[in-house]
Amino acid sequence: MPQKNVRFQDNSGMMTVISFVVLAVVNYIVIRLAQAWFPHSIVMGTVDMSAHWAGIMFGSALSLLTVFFLPFVTWWEQRMKRTLMTNEMMAVFLGFNFMAIWLITRRSEIFGVGVTSWLVVLGLAVVLDLLQGAVMMRLEKWRQNN
C-alpha cells in the first residue's frame, strides 16, 4: 500500500505507458495514411494478416522501440553534461526512426509491412519524426502543467 498520494504525471512508469500508447496511435495513423496515399510504395498485410493488424503491429513495434530508446538518449545527455536542443533531438530521432522502420520492414512476414525503397523509409522517418516530436513535446507540456 503506498504511503503517499503520487500525482499521475509524476509516476514515470505511467508516463512510459502513456507515451507508448500515444506513439503507437500516431505510428498507426501515419502508416495507414501513407499506405492509402502511396499504395505502390507501401504494402500492408500478408496472406494471414489484414492490413489493419499489420498497421497495429507496425505502430506497436515502432512505439516499443522508441520507448526503449528514450532512456539511452537521457543517458547520452547526462554523459555529455548538457541537454540536447530540439533540433538535435529531432536529428537523433530521425536517424533512429530510419533505422527502426528499416528493420521492421525487413521483417515483413512478421510485421506485415513492406516498402519498395529506402527513400520510402526516409520519407516515413521524416513524417514520423515531426509528428512524434510534436506529440511528445505536447505530452511533456501536459505533464508539467498538471
Order of helices and strands: HEHHHEH
Total helix count?
5
| Helix content range | over 70%
Quote the average pLDDT: 88
Which structural category do the helix and sheet elements fall into? mainly alpha
Structure summary, number of beta strands: 2
Question: What is the secondary structure topology, with strand pairs?
Answer:
Blueprint: H1 12-37, E1 42-44, H2 51-80, H3 86-106, H4 108-111, E2 113-115, H5 118-145
Antiparallel strand pairs: 1-2
Helix pairs in contact: 1-2, 1-5, 2-3, 3-5
Task: Describe the fold and architecture.
The chain has a two-stranded antiparallel ribbon with strand order 1-2. The model has no long low-confidence stretch (mean pLDDT 88). 75% of the residues lie in helices and 4% in strands. It has one domain. It is globular and about 50 Å long. It has helices at 12-37, 51-80, 86-106, 108-111, 118-145; strands at 42-44, 113-115. Helix 1 runs antiparallel to helix 5 (118-145). The protein has 5 helices and 2 strands. It has 146 residues and is mainly α.
Attribute tags:
146 residues; globular; 5 helices; 2 strands; single chain; mainly alpha; two-stranded antiparallel ribbon
Summarize the structure.
This protein has helices at residues 12-37, 51-80, 86-106, 108-111, 118-145, and strands spanning 42-44, 113-115. With 146 residues, the protein is mainly alpha-helical.
